[in-house]
Amino acid sequence: MKLLQLPLVITSLWLPSALGAIRTDLRRKNVEVAEIDNNAHIDHEDQEIVFKEGADFEDVFRCTRGGGRRLTFNADNTIAACCAPGQRLLGSLDTAFDCCAPGHSLTGTDRTGYRCCPTGQFYDGIRCGSACKNGKIMVDGDCVCPSGTTATADDGCKALAGCDSGLVTGACYLLRMENGHTFGYDSGQLYYSAADHSNQHRVGKFKLCKNERCSSGSSVDPNDAVRIRDTQGTITQSSETQGNRWLNKASDGNHVGRTSRYDDAGLFTISKWSCGKYCLGGFEAGVSYACPSDTPSITFTPDRQACTPVEIVEVPCDIHAVENNCMWEKTPGTCGPGTADDCHCPKGWGFARHDYLGLQ
Q1: Are β-strands 33-36 and 79-83 bridged in parallel, bridged antiparallel, or unpaired?
Q2: Does the CA dihedral 112-114-118-121 come out positive or negative?
Q3: Average pLDDT for consecutive 10-residue bins of the chain (360 residues)?
Q4: Which of 126, 161, 196, 334 lies 20 to 30 Å (CA to CA) from residue 203?
Q5: Nearest CA to 225 among 254, 257, 188, 262?
Q6: CB atoms within 10 A of CB 101
Q7: Is 276 left (phi over 0), alpha (psi -120 to 50) or beta?
Q8: pTM for the full predicted model
Q9: Backbone dihedral angles phi then psi of residue 7, each to the nearest 5 degrees
């Protein structure tokens, strides 16, 4: 077996700091990886990445000596890991990274996890097995139709007409709680609660995410684990500097707050509830109110069936986008002066889900 040979990358441009050329703070996904920018000098012969700092100093990044592993790069030289000789570094930031032997591919899903399997096989969360066809996925060794679809007579899969959740990843939503208030971050109490909008309580604008990059357009089903990202800043700090924080995993009566770390984010689920409403639960633990209050917060609880009823309303992610004009229609007698209940919100603006958002 031979070490994966990649073209030598040499550049005459040096960053003033090694921290500007390589990121080692990426979330661990099967193997530890580092993200490298185009200004890094990769020395394949000495198995080092060298950064020049000023006129007299160098900084070196390399695999731990004596461990038998060598610097290995993905296909476009943007990600590095320490792999055994002969292994390839496969994967992406949206899935996972792993060192795979020749004749293997990295396969799986966000739900099952990702592992190296012989080419043509699929990882089902337990083992590698024969790859499925006709749109089916491997679950516990069997090829089945994915969630939200049903089998057809020709052994394929088709979507369940009219039975999607109405929610997708990457869109922005408001959460209105049972007390009629919107859910948002209280910069005085340092946690989320359902309260009036004020100078310290800002309404949250939330994205439902299945991965750290919060890739858009994937249906959010009741059995999906999602992390919730608040794109809003705080009253004193802008969305650009303090937005995109995750709701954390505070439990046992501790109020859910916010964190900048994806790994510290809580794992939530969302299911349809009574007509026009949803229930916010947890993937590994349930979600309930933290304590009796007129402006309640939420907390994770051991009961996995516990959930908190909410109304979910889609809003623009960017309030300056021209496409916002198409969110609802203003025609005589429907969206003139009066309540928002008279507005017609066409299914087909953005993603096809408005019929499920309780806005009509």
Answers
A1: antiparallel
A2: positive
A3: 31 37 60 77 78 68 85 86 92 90 89 86 82 71 75 77 84 93 90 87 92 89 93 70 82 93 94 92 94 92 94 91 79 47 48 33
A4: 334
A5: 262
A6: 13
A7: left
A8: 0.54
A9: -60, 140
